From TrEMBL:
It comes from the Bacteria. InterPro entries: Lambda_DNA-bd_dom_sf (IPR010982). Gene3D superfamilies: lambda repressor-like DNA-binding domains. Residues 92-147 are annotated as: Disordered. Residues 92-115 have a biased composition (Basic and acidic residues). It comes from Methylobacterium komagatae. This is RNA polymerase subunit sigma-70.
Length: 147
């Protein structure tokens, strides 16, 4: 199957200027009627239960696609999909996985230090366990220069 670009090149090779002009008019009509512009990036709006409910309302009451809903409310299409398909963001639970992930991302953007885990007494044993597999690995591994 030929791509549209290959088809256009074949038309050029055969000097079919009328067909090329028709193809260009169809492209212009497509661009004019397109409701969602391709490759447009959004800064994103914070997902809230109210916003999730408005996404569900738009999805139920209109024939809009997920992409069109995303542009209308100011989020990306993946978030719209999560709300519609999995019911995410419909509660204010701060311990919900999506809320925890959002808070971690916000902390990373702020440059907050990572919370450190408490040091345990098993730290020296872990170091010993890590060293042992390395010694075992070196006995049976081949390097490129060995062959």
């Amino acid at each position: 199957m030929a791509t549209l670009k290959e088809f256009e090149e074949a038309l050029r090779e055969h000097g079919m200027n009328m067909a090329l002009a028709l193809l260009e008019r169809l492209r212009e009509r497509d661009r004019a009627t397109r409701t969602v512009k391709p490759a447009r990036r959004l800064t994103g709006q914070k997902m809230t239960p109210e916003l999730a409910r408005s996404i569900l309302e738009l999805h139920a009451s209109t024939g809009m696609t997920q992409q069109e809903i995303a542009f209308k409310v100011g989020v990306n299409q993946g978030r719209v999909n999560e709300v519609i398909k999995r019911g995410k963001w419909l509660t204010d639970d701060p311990h919900a996985p999506e809320a925890v992930a959002r808070d971690r991302a916000v902390a990373r953007l702020r440059g907050d230090p990572k919370p450190r885990k408490a040091a345990s007494s098993k730290a020296p044993a872990k170091a010993k366990d890590k060293a042992a597999p390395q010694a075992r690995r070196s006995q049976g591994q081949l390097a490129f220069g060995d062959l």
